Write a sequence for this structure.
């Protein structure tokens, strides 16, 4: 397939949406973090860049998510051959926006994560801004061996615009070395990674003096301690160290390509505040398997993707006392919190994700996609439990989906449609005390979300125009898209957006 065109050529020889869609289906390893696998798929040069503006709002949301978001994104990625022996990938994402009517969590992860977060019951606006970068490189074949490495780096902040005003700062980076060994049609791969994620709320301020504001610190399910003016002097940070590994096996034949990956990782998150006060520690383990099967034909691609991941997490909860020590020589006083009681595994969480997706892609004579159709089935379920006294929250959701797209005018105009119907398989809440502020403000209202069955429709139209800048050809495009979701308990959600960019 061609990657560039002479000035004045039409869409047939350009890197465009049709090319990208075909490459996504052809690249067996494109969902793997094993950078050594790059040249097992392709050595082609291609990329895309775009601006995206999006608006979403509706009543189908959880309390800690907000009811409306306006968002602006800039995205760029590129696959590029580097010299004679290397092939690289780079990605940059800038994501900026505002969420309205959100409460009860001033941090980035209110759900299915550490129970030790904080927030106010007063609804307000939140601004977010993230910079997300990825750089990866893989080698060509050296006697069957290939080597690679990947770096992911993300920074951001999440700021509340109403008293009490917080600002959560994020630093997240990940290093992933990898290798593969090929013999005949078979390839074995191995990658490992270290990831450090730090989120910090350095302080909380107010513009107006209001002695009645209550600030809450949570410790799992309905348990939240509210203190009047508790935001004063508040500081907290979450530092997660995570190690993981992935083992891969692939088979590559002319009419069958198949990849299976096994994944495991472990994380330990330390939560600390003023004088290194620790409410507890959070531990998580993830186990996963993925399978990708591709049947390439002259004018068609059949692809089947299967995935299964199980997460098991728990938190130890501490009761601490503040001690002070006076240095007899200098007279300085030092403060330190020490554990008086430790509740082992008091908070427990399990999460199960399963997915199946099949897509048929019809190819034109030039190898580009001209149409596709597919079906998918996703399951997500979680169970949260807190001991002494026992409280539980369980929910699950099964979502089948159909999708399709067609390229008109030689691939210059694409129309795409998809339809989901999501079934709530479980929504059970059993609290030791259902009258706490957090239970009444968050857990009970969220049941409406978990209990809902819904249908969702998505439509998108993309128009492309070949243009050259300084004799460099590119397929410029504009995309309009929208979603509408409606539930059986009279909730809804709408999303519209416009994307302007180029393929090259």
């Amino acid at each position: 397939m061609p990657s560039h065109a002479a000035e004045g050529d039409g869409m047939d020889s350009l890197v465009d949406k049709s090319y990208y869609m075909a490459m996504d289906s052809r690249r067996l390893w494109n969902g793997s973090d094993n950078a050594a696998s790059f040249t097992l798929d392709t050595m082609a040069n291609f990329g895309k860049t775009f601006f995206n503006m999006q608006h979403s709002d509706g009543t189908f949301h959880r309390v800690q998510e907000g009811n409306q978001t306006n968002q602006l994104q800039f995205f760029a990625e590129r696959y590029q051959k580097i010299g004679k022996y290397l092939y690289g990938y780079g990605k940059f994402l800038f994501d900026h926006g505002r969420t309205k009517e959100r409460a009860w969590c001033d941090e980035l992860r209110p759900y299915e994560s550490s129970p030790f977060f904080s927030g106010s019951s007063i609804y307000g606006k939140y601004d977010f801004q993230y910079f997300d970068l990825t750089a990866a490189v893989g080698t060509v074949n050296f006697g069957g061996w290939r080597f690679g490495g990947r770096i992911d780096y993300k920074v951001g902040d999440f700021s509340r615009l109403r008293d009490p005003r917080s600002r959560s700062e994020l630093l997240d980076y990940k290093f992933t070395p990898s290798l593969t060994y090929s013999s005949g049609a078979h390839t074995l791969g191995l990658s490992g990674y270290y990831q450090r994620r730090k989120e910090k709320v350095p302080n909380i301020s107010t513009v107006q003096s209001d002695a009645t504001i209550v600030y809450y610190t949570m410790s799992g399910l309905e348990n939240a301690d509210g203190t009047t003016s508790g935001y004063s002097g508040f500081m907290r940070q979450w530092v997660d160290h995570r190690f993981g590994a992935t083992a891969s096996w692939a088979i590559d034949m002319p009419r069958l390509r198949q990849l299976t990956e096994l994944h495991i990782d472990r994380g330990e998150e330390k939560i600390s505040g003023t004088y290194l006060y620790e409410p507890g520690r959070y531990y998580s383990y993830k186990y996963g398997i993925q399978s990708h099967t591709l049947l390439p034909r002259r004018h068609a691609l059949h692809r089947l993707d299967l995935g299964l991941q199980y997460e098991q997490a728990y938190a130890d909860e501490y009761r601490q006392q503040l001690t002070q020590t006076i240095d007899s020589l200098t007279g300085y006083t030092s403060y330190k919190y020490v554990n008086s009681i430790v509740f082992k595994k008091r908070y427990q969480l399990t999460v199960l994700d399963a997915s199946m997706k099949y897509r048929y892609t019809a190819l034109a004579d030039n190898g580009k996609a001209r149409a596709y159709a597919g079906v998918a089935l996703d399951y997500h379920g979680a169970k949260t439990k807190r001991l002494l006294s026992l409280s539980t929250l369980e929910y699950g959701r099964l979502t089948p989906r159909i999708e399709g797209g067609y390229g008109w005018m030689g691939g210059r105009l694409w129309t795409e449609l998809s339809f989901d119907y999501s079934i709530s398989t479980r929504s059970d809440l059993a609290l030791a005390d259902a009258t706490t502020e957090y239970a009444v403000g968050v857990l009970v209202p969220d049941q409406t979300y978990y209990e809902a069955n819904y249908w969702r429709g998505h439509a998108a139209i993309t128009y492309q125009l070949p243009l050259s800048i300084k004799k460099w050809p590119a397929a410029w495009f504009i995309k309009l898209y929208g979603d509408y979701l409606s539930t059986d308990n009279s909730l809804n959600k709408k999303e519209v957006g416009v994307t302007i960019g180029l393929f090259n």
